[in-house]
Design goal:
The protein is mainly α. The chain has helices at 5-8, 20-24, 32-56, 61-86, 94-108, 112-125, 142-146, 150-160, 162-176, 188-212, 215-240, 255-261, 270-275, 282-287, 296-302, 304-307, 314-318, 336-340, and strands spanning 140-141, 265-266, 311-312, 325-327, 332-334.
């Protein structure tokens, strides 16, 4: 079905990140059968766990809650599939991928066309200091932070605090912010995407409320969504927020250099890698976003340079939660304490 580079011989190591594009292009072709299988083994358990959690309400609320929290993992994977649809990487037919993405957007509380546009902007400008603000986590340079008033510094510190980013932030983003096409309010298609998704969500919740009352919403829908959102926020954070990431001014910024050096390779246990749909292989994803998620491990098997690049373990990633300011001189992401000690 696929042809590995091992079968074709090892090509010379690319001398520049942009040269990887030609190498990685051969991995872009999705398999309809494989994509359908990945959807089935994700959506099937998601629906089954929802049903089991609902039934468990008649036995024990704690059992129901436990099942709903387990289901957060499959909801996260559904978001990853939606993510691939947004890159036209899941089905050969872009139309089929877009409609699947819109359907999954109801489950993930994410208006697909709005998210697709903002995420595309993220890919086209990641690491560019002059194009921050859409589809990314707001990051200031040391000099920008020093130029702020005391109140503005406090607001930035609050925004970057783990309790806000990973505690309050996910719920705000998915339950509230996603209800409007913020940043794209001048285009009718994005209003249609947001309002259409909202209407479908409200209809689904109304059906649940009619047949099951409030408890399935409070003990299944809300907890599973919040946990999946929190895990997704953490994954997105560590993919670009690490000490040796890449930020440059517009004159020095290069799309492919930033993709390769500004994105991490998050090394996860096999179970977590499966549940996150290989999104931790993020440097390869940014180099060539059209590669289906299930082919990303194949890239690493064939190219040890990429397999060893930007590796980050779970333990190492925890340090990233303390890094908040980009130092343009040392080209490092620093903590507030480290930035304070700079001359």
């Amino acid at each position: 079905m696929y042809h590995s580079h091992k079968d074709l011989g090892h090509p010379p190591k690319p001398s520049h990140p942009r040269d990887w594009v030609k190498v990685l292009a051969s991995y872009r072709e999705p398999s309809t059968a494989r994509s359908s299988f990945e959807l089935a083994v994700t959506l099937g358990p998601f629906i089954a766990l929802w049903a089991m959690a609902w039934y468990a309400l008649s036995i024990s609320v704690w059992l129901s809650l436990a099942l709903s929290l387990c289901n957060a993992a499959f909801l996260l994977r559904l978001f990853a599939i939606q993510h691939d649809c947004g890159h036209s990487a899941f089905f050969k037919s872009r139309t089929a991928g877009d409609w699947l993405g819109r359907g999954l957007g109801v489950l993930t509380l994410t208006p697909y066309d709005v998210w697709k546009r903002t995420h595309s902007y993220h890919h086209s400008a990641a690491g560019n200091l002059e194009h921050r603000g859409m589809g990314d986590i707001h990051t200031l340079t040391v000099e920008e932070y020093r130029a702020l008033s005391r109140y503005q510094r406090l607001m930035y510190r609050l925004y970057r605090h783990p309790v806000v980013l990973f505690g309050l932030g996910p719920g705000y983003l998915f339950f509230l912010q996603n209800r409007l096409p913020l940043g794209l309010t001048d285009k009718a298609r994005y209003w249609v995407s947001a309002m259409g998704t909202n209407a479908a969500i409200l209809f689904a919740l109304a059906v649940i409320l009619y047949f099951g009352g409030l408890m399935p919403i409070l003990l299944i829908f809300v907890p599973s969504t919040l946990l999946a959102a929190t895990a997704g926020m953490w994954l997105f954070y560590v993919q670009h927020q690490f000490e040796s990431t890449n930020w440059d001014t517009n004159e020095e910024w290069d799309l492919h250099h930033s993709a390769m050096h500004g994105s991490s390779h998050y090394v996860l246990p096999s179970v977590l890698q499966w549940l996150s749909a290989n999104i931790g292989i993020h440097h390869v994803h940014h180099l060539y976003s059209r590669i289906p998620f299930y082919r990303l491990p194949e890239v690493l098997r064939d190219h040890q340079d990429l397999a060893q690049s930007n590796r980050m373990t779970i333990r190492e990633s925890l340090v990233s939660a303390k890094l908040h300011l980009w130092d343009e001189k040392s080209k490092r992401l620093l903590s507030f304490a480290q930035a304070k000690n700079l001359p």
